Amino acid sequence: MNQLDITQAKSKLPDLLDLAIEGEEIIITQNNKPVAKISPIKRPLKRGSAKGKIWMSEDFDEPLTDFKEYME
What we know:
Strand content: 15-25%
Shape: elongated
Structural class: alpha+beta
CATH class of the domain at 1-40: Alpha Beta
CATH superfamily of the domain at 1-40: YefM-like domain
Low-confidence stretches: none
Strand order of the largest sheet: 1-2-3
Order of helices and strands: EHHEE
Radius of gyration: 23 Å
Largest sheet: 3 strands, mixed
Number of strands: 3
């Protein structure tokens, strides 16, 4: 989380918006007190958006021999 004074934020608004787009949260302060927050909008997940990013090993369903005593 980034934090900066309101006078700095005024001159750097485009940069702060770029940070928010990348997922950062920015707190704007005045006299060292938080007065505003710029944060990314959470978008709903789309079905299939993780396709190709997740995999399971071939032995995923195999019994765990290391934990056999806990499974009895």
